[in-house]
């Protein structure tokens, strides 16, 4: 399978974790894309990114956690991949599946692994195998 060269990365998070991911991505020669809500327009992660996309809304549920908005932001900015950062989206198998279905790369474990590890009993069973 031919994988296209990764040149642009959207970071689907905010705050310090987004800044850390951006620093590493820039050291790797990648163009970085930050997303922000209306409130975070002037936040540090927004200022440090090469490209900034306004998701609208003032709450995370209206911006950072809206999968369709994140995928549209990635496509509009030319990003080939999305890094979920830590927390909500990194633990969301449906998010990983949606990114893949949109033809983008999810920088994280496969959705099947997220599903398996999301359940403590399933994770324990898997680890015992």
TrEMBL record:
Gene3D superfamilies: 3.40.50.20
Residue ranges constituting the Biotin carboxylation domain according to the UniProt record: 5-129
Keyword Aminoacyl-tRNA synthetase: no
Gene Ontology molecular functions: ATP binding; biotin carboxylase activity
Keyword Transport recorded: no
Keywords: ATP-binding, Biotin, Ligase, Nucleotide-binding
Enzymatic reactions: N(6)-biotinyl-L-lysyl-[protein] + hydrogencarbonate + ATP = N(6)-carboxybiotinyl-L-lysyl-[protein] + ADP + phosphate + H(+)
InterPro entries, per database record: BC-like_N, Biotin_carboxylase_complex, Biotin_carboxylation_dom, PreATP-grasp_dom_sf
A Pfam family recorded for this sequence: Biotin_carb_N
The protein's annotated pathway: Lipid metabolism; malonyl-CoA biosynthesis; malonyl-CoA from acetyl-CoA: step 1/1
Role played: This protein is a component of the acetyl coenzyme A carboxylase complex; first, biotin carboxylase catalyzes the carboxylation of the carrier protein and then the transcarboxylase transfers the carboxyl group to form malonyl-CoA.
Subunit structure, as described in the record: Acetyl-CoA carboxylase is a heterohexamer of biotin carboxyl carrier protein, biotin carboxylase and the two subunits of carboxyl transferase in a 2:2 complex.
UniProt-recorded name of the protein: Biotin carboxylase
Source organism of the structure: Pseudomonas syringae pv. actinidiae ICMP 19096
